[in-house]
Write a structure and sequence with these properties.
Layout lengths: L13 H13 L4 H20 L7
Length: 57
């Protein structure tokens, strides 16, 4: 059975990530959940402009 969650290594500037983590904590989220929220928002924005993205899944 394929796991629904994908593990992805993200390389990012250390200072930028510290600031990002601060924002996430101020929103009551982990850095991972904050990234997930940004991804969902960006996909919604893209799909509202260009239409639904079809995948093989």
């Amino acid at each position: 059975m394929e796991d629904k969650l994908l593990r992805y290594t993200l390389r990012v500037d250390r200072l930028l990530f510290k600031k990002f983590r601060y924002i996430a904590e101020s929103e009551g989220r982990s850095a991972n959940k904050e990234i997930e929220q940004y991804l969902k928002k960006r996909v919604r924005e893209y799909e509202s402009e260009f239409g639904k993205i079809e995948t093989d899944d």
